[in-house]
Every structure is written in C-alpha cells, then in structure tokens.
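Lecture 7 notes: from sequence to structure.
We start with the chain below.
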Amino acid sequence: MPPDLVFWDRDYRSALDRETCFAIGAIEMTDQKTQVNASHLWQIDRWSLGAFCIAALVLLPIASVAWIAMTPSENIWPHLIATTLPRYLGNTLVVMVAVAVIASVIGTLTAWVVVMYRFPGVKWLEWLLLLPLAVPGYLGAYALVDFLDYAGPVQTALRASFGWASAQDYHFPDIRSRAGAIFVLSVSLYPYVYLLARAGFREQSGAAHEVARALGASGVRQFLRVGLPLARPAIVAGTAIVMMETVNDFGTVDYFGVQTLTTGIFAVWLEANNAGGAAQIACVILSVILLLVTLEKISRRKAKFHRMSRQDRQLSRMHLSGARGWGATVLCLLPFAAGFVLPVAVLTGHALTKPDRWLAPGLLDALTSTVWVGGAAALITVTAAQFLVYGVRLSGRDAPRAILPLTTIGYAAPGAVLAVGLLIPLAAFDNAIADGILKVTGWDPGLMLTGGAAVLIYAYAVRFFAIAQGATDAAMGRVAPSLPMAARTLGLGAGGTLMRVYFPMIRGSLATALLLVFVDCVKELPATLLLRPFNFNTLATRTYEQASLEKIGDAAPSALMIIAVSLVAVSMVARAMMRRV
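Predicted structure tokens for the same chain:
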C-alpha cells in the first residue's frame, strides 16, 4: 500500500475511533443524567409540592371569602342592595377616585419639579417628600381633627382674635366629613405616586427634553407633551396602589364617620352578626380591586417605551431663581407639612404635655405584642417566600411558575377581607379539633388557632407575602445560574445549594424584605382589629381604641412609636433612592 494511503487509512481509523469514543461517552453521559434525574425526581417533586402548599395557604382566604359569600346561612344580599350597599359602594368609589386624583397630581407635580429644576432645598425635599409614608392615614386623621376641631388651637385662636363666643358666631368647615377623609388619605398616600413618577422622569432621555426646549416648548408644554406621556406607566402604577390602599383603609374613614365597604364589613359582621353578609361585601371589595388591577394592566398593554441608545444623556436640571425658585420650594413643602409635620407635631405636643403617659398601663404590653407578632409574621413570610421562589425555580415546570403571580393577590386584598376569609373557616376547624380531643381524652384544649395570635400572624403573612416574594425573586434572579449549577455538580443537594450558595448572596435583600414586612405588620389595623385575641393589643389597636374615645393624648405615645418604626423603612427607601441619583 502506498505510504499516503497508509497514512490516510490510519487517520481514517483514528477518526472512526474518536467518533466511536464520543458516541459511547455520550451514551454513558445520557445514562448517568437519566439516573441522576431519576434519583432526584422525588427531591424536585418535594420542592414543587412545597411551593404548591405555600401558594394554597396564601390563596385560601380569598377562596374562603368566595365560598362563604355563595353559601350564606342567612342571605341578606337583597336587603343590602336595597339599603346600605349603595351607600357603602358610592362612598368608597367617591373617596377612592378623589384620593387617586389628588394624590396623583401631588405626586406627579412634586416629582417633576425635583427632577427637572434646581431651587432652594431641593436636595432635602427630594427625600422629605417620602416621609408621609411613615404616618398611617388613621394617625393623620386623629391629628387633623385635634388641630382643626372646635376645641383645637385653630378655632380657639380664631374665637380669641375676633371675639366670637360660640360656633354660632362663625362658620368653620366640618372636619369630620368625607372631604376630611379624602384630604388625609391624599397627603398620606401621594408618596406612592411620587416615588414611581420620580423614577419614571429620571429614566427619560435628556436629549428628548433638550429637543423640546430647542423647539420653543415652555416648561408646562414640555411636561404635558414629553415628560408626562413617557412617565405615564409609572404614574398609573402608583395611582393604582393609592386606590387599593384607599379601599383597604378603615381607621381613617371610620374616624371621620364615612361609611365605606370596609366599614360595612365591620358593621354587618360584628353588629348584625352575619358572616355571610360580610363575605358578600368582601366580594364586592375584591371585585373593585380586581377591576383596578385589570384596568391598570389594560391601560399600559400597548404602551411601549424604548431607550434610543445604551448611553442616553441624563436630564440636566434647570435653575429656578427668585420667586419661581421659592415657589417651587413652597409647592414641595406643603404636602410634606400636611402629611408628616402636622401629625407628628400634634402627637408630639400631646406626648410631651404629660410625660407620664409613656408609662401608662398596657403600653409596654402593646409594644411587646407588636414586636413579637410582627417579627414572627415577617420571619415566616420571608422564609415561606424564599422556599416558594426557590421551589418554583428548581422545578423548572410551568405549573408552579404559573401560580407564582397569584400569590401576590393578598397584598391587593384589604385586611378586613382576609379576616373574613380566615376567621370563619379556621374557627370551624378549631372547634372540630377541640371537640375531637375532648371526646377522646376528656380534656378541652380550647381554640388553638383562633384563640391566640396564630391566626393574626397567618393574616399578616398572606397580606404582605407579595413584598417578600418580590424581593426574593428579584434577588435570586441576580445570582448567576452557573453558581448553583457548579454547587450541584460538586455534590450539594437542593437544600445545601439554597443555604450555601443562594442565601449568602441574597441575605441583604431578605433582610430588607424582613424589615418592610415587619413595618407593614406594625401599621396594619383592620385585620388586627378583627383577628386579635381578647385582651390582646398592638400599638395600632391601642392607638385606635384611645383615639376613638377622644383620648388623643393617651394615644400619642403608641402613635409616635408606630411612626418611629415606619421611619426606619422609609429611610431605607430614601437611601436607596439617593444612591440612584
């Protein structure tokens, strides 16, 4: 055989050997992969099953409300429609729309001013405008009534200045009215719109605004034609949150005597003793919430905004001097003063008048109950969210991934709705368990779930699960997929990968979620009022009880504690916001 053919034959055979080796190796690797998948099949199913169980627990109250509403023991739905339901629904819609309009106007205008202009105090006002988030609406209501009521400092000063002897000598607007509730909710909720609108304005291209100015557009025209349309999705999202929070509110509207759907649940359930009617009103609230969410998604379904380049020119602030600059300062100071300075000043004044109120009986117990219930709920919520998100990511299946967005519905559901959906089925389950134990052992264990704080912790977890889930999902999404893959290759199981790879890298986000959930638990009022055990007070319920008895001075210490705890979360948001400046 010629030498060249020999070499060709040798190369051909070696090539065949290599291909054969590759094929055999591929078959072996496929077999090993199949064996690994078979060995870990139960482990993957276990995480998927856990994710489904957590999602079911989160969705249980909503399903329970629907079931109770459809199968009431006494159907008072025709009576509600003929009597109180139109008033409840009408007041809810009026307050919700009015608060949405006012809060969106305040939040959008202040966000535009602080992003586009330089004026005295802008660096401070940029984060001061967030502080009203630390003051729940019901605290603002107590402070406003105390400040403007007949015995308050404003009317007292007017009578002293003009020599008026009684209220018949002058006319002063009624503070305890629907208009008062709208004002308080607007100045306490506008930061939701401000925060998102500010981000929407800052992310816009500076070139677009420079072109508008070059074409002769004034500041107002530039806002209407360029800034507002581009920031519309962020503004709509913030307004939707404001509307949902307005529907959820109980303390503010109850203090002002405004009958809404939320107060209707309390009236029908506690006063008329009709759980089915309360569930039917709760379904109306859920329908309103779902309508809001649907409209928000439809409104921005076809709206798409793209950056023209990877390195867009940043917005350049224009300098406002003289009267215009100070006018911008006043414009930003007014909502901050109404939403934060006024309530804090009024409550602080009462707290300092009699320092012994800080040692009042029950205050320390309320603080302790708030800390341990809120802390337990936050820990359980964040842990469950971490398990759920990791289980969905680990399974890689469509079914668990499809249920992930559904678990956020609890945040949109008001606390009163969750209370209806939890207390009734859990009370029936509790009684059945207690009767069974009593029948078998002769010992009555009492109500183990609804007789203690367990149901309250459960309600908090469902209500604020979306916060923990969103933070955990975003944090896990930032972990490079190669890291957990390498850990699994080196022999770590699913649990070991979670604890030794994911947890060290996302613990900062988990800590933030833990704090945010805790703060929201501290402020939550409707669910706490309906689900708390007897003789069990949190700072929120103690403040509500004292203020309902017109004892604002006695309510001031617990109210200031709520604000102080909330300020921690707001300061974290402000610091994160300033880092992105």
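Points to note: Strands lie at 117-118, 318-319. The mean pLDDT is 82.
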